[in-house]
Design a protein that fits this description.
Blueprint (H helix, E strand, L loop, with lengths): L10 H12 L3 H14 L4 H6 L10 H7 L3 H9 L26 H4 L8 H7 L3 H9 L14 H7 L3 H10 L16 H5 L4 H18 L10
Helix pairs in contact: 1-2, 1-4, 4-5, 4-7, 7-8, 7-9, 9-10
């Protein structure tokens, strides 16, 4: 069956879904997604693709990743992506063959600051959340509007365990992350020096992170 990718949701429904994702209320989130999908004659995954904060464009996966809620992340990614009219289903379950698994669209969703869920998991030091996202196909080389990839954010915010794991144990990711071909990577940043570069990075950390984290429910700046 083909489903429309656009659904108009009430502000209260959007707020509730984001709240449940942020607070790791897995049962409530699952029930609400099922109820809302039935009410709109669509699927939970289609509902999820239409949920975002109106100011920051943070979605449910951003909320869960920023707070390290792996159980909620697993739930969100468990819903099959919707089949759009322009797509041909490759199997009755709407999944690509196991040899070429479909990448869930929530994984690649960016907020207004250009951050993916992986950016937030890394800059807050949530290693297990980062592992789940990477296993699901998250791309650690995507850069945000400041030109920073997820591992840069981890390093800039002192989350060395996360950056070290991705670079050393991330199944070859060290060949991509931090290479000279990637804007905002460590090797490229390392070639820059001087007071101008230090001032720029300091401004990014002091001002950019606060804006990026707005509305995520984090108790303190990472």
């Amino acid at each position: 069956m083909l489903f429309s990718a656009h659904v108009t949701l009430s502000p209260d429904t959007v707020d509730d879904i984001l709240y449940f994702a942020r607070t790791n209320s897995v049962s409530d989130l699952s029930d609400l997604l099922s109820f809302t999908a039935i009410a709109h004659n669509t699927t939970p995954s289609t509902i999820l693709l239409n949920v975002h904060d109106p100011d920051t464009h943070n979605g449910p996966l951003h909320m869960a990743a920023a707070n390290g809620h792996t159980e909620t992340i697993h739930l969100l990614l468990s819903y099959n992506p919707p089949v759009l009219p322009s797509e041909t289903p490759v199997s009755p379950s709407n999944h690509a063959p196991s040899s070429t698994p479909a990448l869930h669209p929530l994984i690649l969703t960016c907020n207004l600051a250009g951050n993916t869920a992986l950016h937030y998991a890394c800059l807050n030091g949530h290693l297990e959340a980062a592992k789940v996202l990477l296993a699901a196909g998250a791309d650690p080389t995507i850069v945000n509007n400041a030109g920073h990839d997820a591992i840069y954010e981890a390093e800039a915010n002192g989350k060395e365990e996360v950056s070290r794991w991705v670079l050393m144990e991330g199944k070859g990711l060290e060949k991509a992350v931090g290479s000279g071909d990637i804007k905002g990577s460590r090797s490229a940043e390392g070639e820059e020096d001087g007071e101008e570069e230090e001032a720029r990075e300091r401004k990014d950390r002091e001002n950019g992170v606060k804006e990026q984290m707005e509305g995520l429910g984090i108790g303190e700046k990472p």
